[in-house]
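Researcher: Predict the fold of Putative membrane protein.
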Amino acid sequence: MHGRYSLAARQNGSVESYCLTSWLSYPCEAIDYLREMNEGGIIYNRYEWGGYLIWQLPDYKVFVDGRMPAWPTPSGKSPYTIYLETLQNQPGWQDTLKEYNVSWLLISPGTFMDLLIGDGPEEYGYTEVKRGNQYVLYKRL
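Model: Structure tokens for Putative membrane protein follow.
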């Protein structure tokens, strides 16, 4: 184990301490909410949060995590390119969310996606269910 997590785990042995002491800011309140909802589904998430979400929400699937391959798919685009184009609301972003059957959007506030969807989430087939300083959680209608 590395860094703050190993120290936190040795001190308290709790995930909460990891949430509070990690170098990265994780959407812990949103994770607690999803755990309580226990609906499963696919989460379109920030790249940096993918591994943590896999660890904390094993009944959910993540759109992206640090193990993502860099080689192109049959479409000619790498999975990371697809992730970025979707996050930046490039043409076809809504089709990507539908193609991958995304149930949840767990993104940072102020991203292109949040600014666009936040003005009228129902228009895009989502509703905002939770917002914090470092995350926004939308659920597909």
